[in-house]
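Why do we care about 3D structure at all? Because function follows from shape, and shape follows, mostly, from sequence. That is the central idea of this module. The next example makes it concrete: a single protein chain, its amino acid sequence, and then its structure expressed as tokens.
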Amino acid sequence: MDQSHLDFPFRIDGRGRTATTGEEEHIRDMIQQVLFTNPGERVNRPDFGCGIKALLFQPNSDVLAAATQVLVKGALHKWLEREIQVEQVEVRAVDAELRVTVVYRLRANGERRADTFQAPA
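And the structure:
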């Protein structure tokens, strides 16, 4: 049976109830939260997140891309180790837009997924 979780970002669905989502979409939502939450934003978990939004305005270089990949992999491993196994992270900055592609396996069923996330404006 597929569990239902609160959808992210929080919203009201068409029935006037709190929107929910399935397990796979919930994991995608959790990855997005880890990527785009700055450490210090969460009161009860001040070290949560990896804060890559702050890197948007750094000079774009191969060194920055490599450091960002390590940062993202480490944060995903720390916070989502039970849910996913990260295989690959690709970070691309084009102008003022940051795109992160994460290739991972769901631990629950071994399914391999690749999702691309864009830094929210």
